[in-house]
Design a protein that fits this description.
By secondary structure, the chain is of the alpha+beta class. 23% of the residues lie in helices and 22% in strands. The chain has one domain: Alpha-Beta Plaits, CATH 3.30.70.20. The chain contains two helices and four strands. The radius of gyration is 10 Å and the shape is globular. Bound molecules: iron/sulfur cluster (SF4). Keywords: 3Fe-4S, Electron transport, Iron, Iron-sulfur, Metal-binding, Transport.
Amino acid sequence: MRVRADRERCIGAGLCVLTAPEVFEHDDDEGLVIILEATPAAHHRDNVELARRLCPAGVISVEPA
Ligand code: SF4
């Protein structure tokens, strides 16, 4: 699994950080998403997929690695 997030369209809502904190983080300056683990372990898959669905800006994508 490979995770991407389009920071240009991120609105900093933070649902991804709450849902999968091992994979997503906010940067301190702009409050926009940072990917901590672009290829997260398989046991994070469900939370990453939930974060993708919950992202209000629709900027998270998940692809097969
Ligand atoms: S949930 Fe979406 S809009 Fe909110 S911080 Fe994460 S990537 Fe950005």
